[in-house]
Amino acid sequence: MDDHRLPKIVMYSELSSGYRERGAPRKRYKNSLKRTLSACDIDVQGWTDLATDRSAWRCRIQEATTKFEEERITTANNKRLRRDNPTQTPTPHPCRHCSRICRARIGLISHERACRQRHGQPL
After folding, report:
1. Which of 4, 31, 44, 79 has the most CB atoms at less than 10 Å from its CB?
2. pLDDT digits (tens, 9 = 90+) for 50-85
3. Are strands 101-102 and 93-94 parallel, antiparallel or unpaired?
4. Could you tell me which residues come within 8 angstroms of residue 67 by beta carbon, excluding any fewer than 6 positions away?
């Protein structure tokens, strides 16, 4: 393809906005496209050949996006269920000095320090 053609300019030019790591090279549209194709389980190496057959490309894109969307929704629902209905109850952490129950280990450490100071025991 000639260098002045719009598709080639878009595919190989740098993006003017977007996220990149510090010191990393600027992203191109092609990099973004490859990441999206990988997320949809489309072969990154052979996508150009697949795209030449327009009907096969449309069919593959439709299947891939449907599957991707279903997985995204399932993942979000599972995450929501885990958040709303935790299966594990927090392990209680009893104080060795006064038997007070703390829900978090860091709270127990802080409480035991204060408890030792109150009872005159060395830290």
Report:
1. 31
2. 888 889 888 988 998 899 889 989 999 999 988 887
3. antiparallel
4. 40, 41
Task: Give the integer Cα–Cα distance in Å for 48 and 62.
Answer: 16
**Residue 46's pLDDT is what?**
83
Q: Could you tell me if 37 and 44 are in contact, meaning their C-beta atoms sit under 8 angstroms apart?
A: yes
List residues bridging with 94 in a β-sheet: 101
Mention every residue, 6+ apart, whose C-beta is less than 8 A from residue 37: 43, 44, 47
Question: How far apart (Å, rounded) are the C-alpha atoms in residues 89 and 74?
Answer: 24
Side-chain-side CA neighbours of residue 56 (13 Å): 9
Q: Report yes or no: 15 and 27 within 8 Å, Cβ to Cβ.
A: yes
- Tell me if 72 sits within 8 A of 66, measured CB to CB: no
For residue 15, pLDDT beyond 70? no
Distance CA 91, CA 100 (A): 13
